[in-house]
UniProtKB/TrEMBL annotation:
Family (UniProt): Belongs to the nitrite and sulfite reductase 4Fe-4S domain family.
EC number: 1.7.7.1
Species of the source: Geodia barretti (Barrett's horny sponge)
Every Nitrite/sulphite reductase 4Fe-4S domain range: 66-220
UniProt keyword Protein transport present: no
SUPFAM superfamilies listed in its UniProt record: Nitrite and sulphite reductase 4Fe-4S domain-like, Nitrite/Sulfite reductase N-terminal domain-like
Organism classification: Eukaryota, Metazoa, Porifera, Demospongiae, Heteroscleromorpha
UniProt name for this protein: Ferredoxin--nitrite reductase, chloroplastic
Cofactor(s) needed by this chain: siroheme
Domain of life of the organism encoding this protein: Eukaryota
Length: 257
């Protein structure tokens, strides 16, 4: 399983990956909804050589089925329906996880959490079926200036093998998390789960079903309040991977005719 960061490949990586596929997989690969690529039919004797080749182009990261495999739509990077830079947030969440302690990142329950995000409510990033999902929104700071933000969804699932195990997450109502606060909110949610679950076998969604969303709603509310107190022109008004003050602008989407 090849796990490109944010599902993104640059030109040199694409060409090198094509060479690897031609040599070891009959020139074929399969894309997944998690924005990974599956390389099939590799002979066992070639596995190490394939890993070395992938490692040389920065595509040998393990744990394709873990919390670090954050899924995002393009958001405002290319879609005119986008409200926020969902790809920018995806990178910010990955960077945040890189700073987490081993106790958190080595925990299997934490690893099993799935995170997805969309730059708008249309849901191309499938945020609504993630354990933790975000979709782009905007809120107003104290001076009326728009702040890039996200609505938060918790408890979704896409049922690894059974359709009946899939469910849509619950939206935290009437609360928007500022984009720049989302990484810290994520860590608070994950830490709260790890510290308060019944035991190590209790999955994230099982935990939510047992304890409810009240405490985590308070976390989101506190994040929203931070935007209302932000000084005009502060970093809170700038979206991820942007340098200009945020302004909501929407047009036709990528697939509009």
């Amino acid at each position: 399983m090849v796990k490109p960061e944010r599902g993104d490949l640059d030109g040199p990586q694409f060409r090198a990956l094509a060479d690897i596929m031609r040599k070891y997989t009959g020139g074929r690969a399969r894309a997944t909804q998690e924005q990974n690529l599956v390389l099939r039919f590799i002979h066992e004797s070639s596995l190490h050589a394939v890993w070395e080749a992938l490692d040389s182009i920065g595509l040998a990261e393990p744990d394709s089925r873990s919390i670090t495999n954050v899924v995002s739509c393009p958001g405002t990077d290319s879609c005119k329906l986008g409200i926020t830079s969902s790809m920018g947030l995806a990178k910010a969440l990955r960077d945040e996880m890189d700073e987490w302690s081993g106790d958190l990142m080595d925990d299997q329950g934490v690893k099993d959490i799935r995170i997805k995000m969309s730059g708008c409510p249309n849901g191309c990033g499938l945020h609504h079926i993630a354990n933790i999902g975000f979709h782009g929104a905007a809120l107003k700071g104290p001076d009326g200036q728009q702040v890039p933000a996200y609505e938060l969804f918790l408890g979704g699932n896409y049922g690894d093998n059974r359709v009946e195990d899939s469910r849509v997450g619950t939206r935290i109502p009437r609360v928007k998390v500022p984009a720049k606060a989302a990484p810290s909110v994520l860590k608070t949610i994950v830490s709260y789960y790890k510290d308060n679950r019944a035991d190590k076998t209790e999955k994230f969604n099982q935990f939510l079903d047992r304890v409810g969303l009240e405490q985590l709603t308070e976390v989101a509310i506190a994040a929203e309040e931070s935007a209302k107190e932000a000084a005009p022109g502060s970093d809170m008004y700038v979206d991820w991977e942007r340098t200009n003050i945020y302004k909501l602008e929407r047009g036709e989407g990528e697939c509009a005719v």
